[in-house]
Amino acid sequence: MPGVWTRKDLLGLEDLSKEEIELILATAESFKEVSTREIKKVPALRGKTVVNLFYEPSTRTRVSFEIAAKRLSADVINIASETSSVRKGETLIDTGRNIEALKVDIIVVRHNYSGAAVMLARHVRASVINAGDGWHEHPTQALLDVFTLKEKLGRIEGLNVSILGDIAHSRVARSNIWGLTKLGANVMVCAPKMLIPPAIEQMGVAVTDDIDEALRNADAVNVLRMQFERDEENAFPKQLEYFKNFGITKERLGKAKKDIIVMHPGPLNRGIEISSEIADGINSVILEQVTNGIAVRMAALFLVAQANENITHEDTD
Ligand code: CP
Questions:
Q1: Nearest 5 degrees, angle CA 98-CA 100-CA 105?
Q2: Which residue among 42, 67, 243, 245 sits deepest, i.e. has the most Cβ atoms within 10 Å of its Cβ?
């Protein structure tokens, strides 16, 4: 039975209960139908203002939050750090407080530093939604991944889900691990040894560097982008080497379950972590994930806005 949402912010899945995650998924399910209407709008957030504050590039998350807010009838403003006063040295907290002074209700923030969303949330009365912070968490991505899996397979409990790729630098991997394990999935992570963070087993996952093992019993594989821009020490496998040893190809998938679900959060590196044949093939749900992102973000915006109306805000005074 889904729980009750009382949080002003959505900062990650680590702190959420199973019931809170189920509530977001159930709320998303009820909002999904809105996007199929001729007039794709409900008045749930009429009169509310949402700011998308992005310090890192984004296509899917930013556009999806903007569409989600508009489908809920909120007003939306987009701020990119390159074209804002961040370029003149303004801190995240000062930027947040100034945005709040403009009577904004929800700040959706993407930042390159882990913990940025938590820090901002402590300093503003507006709700904060984490749209990806450093290597830490990307909660709405994991929620849309889980939503898509549940839609496809009817359940999460007992599923075998492998997460493949650059686990060490991946906020998507972390949020997926928290979400999937809380809902009862069996999660395995697979990567070259240097891309598996120490003590990852403590998050309740199995670990392998053998891709065939990761695919053998998997009901779904979530393929992560190789983040070569993070390879400051030039220690990652080279692109062709990575594809040869870890790339998802028709041949490799041929040894997995016939109806294995293939997911990817995007952006794709075709020919590096996944072949085009698989990315565009019948097992892929990659574009369905993108579509489901709207419903999940509508749910996140709606729940935090509703909860914030019931908070007295002594903590941020
Ligand atoms: N999956 C994801 O976060 O994509 P963007 O970087 O395009 O938002």
A1: 155
A2: 243
| Predicted TM-score (pTM) above 0.85 | yes
Please write the tens of the pLDDT for every residue from 72-104.
Answer: 999 999 998 887 787 788 899 999 999 999 999
Q: How much is the pLDDT for 317?
A: 47
Q: Kindly report the number of other CB atoms within 10 A of residue 50's CB atom.
A: 26
Fold matches, 18-138+293-309 and 139-290: yes
Asked if 228 and 185 touch (Cβ cutoff 8 Å), the reply is no
> Given this model, what pLDDT does residue 29 score?
98
- Residue 262 Cα to chain centre, angstroms: 16
Give the per-residue pLDDT at 235.
67
Cβ burial of 269 (10 Å; 0-12, 13-18, 19+) is buried
Substitution candidate for ligand 1 out of 55, 58, 129 with most atoms within 8 A of CB: 58
- Cα 317 to ligand 1 centre (Å): 34
267 lines ligand 1 (CB under 6 A): yes
- Delimit the domains of the chain by residue range: 18-138+293-309, 139-290
DSSP letter (8 states) at residue 134: T
The average pLDDT across 224-251 equals: 84
Specify the ligand 1 atom closest to the Cα of 56: 6
CATH number, span 18-138+293-309: 3.40.50.1370
CATH architecture of 139-290: 3-Layer(aba) Sandwich (3.40)
Burial class (CB in 10 A: 0-12, 13-18, 19+), 38: exposed
Q: Is the CB of 179 under 6 A from ligand 1?
A: no
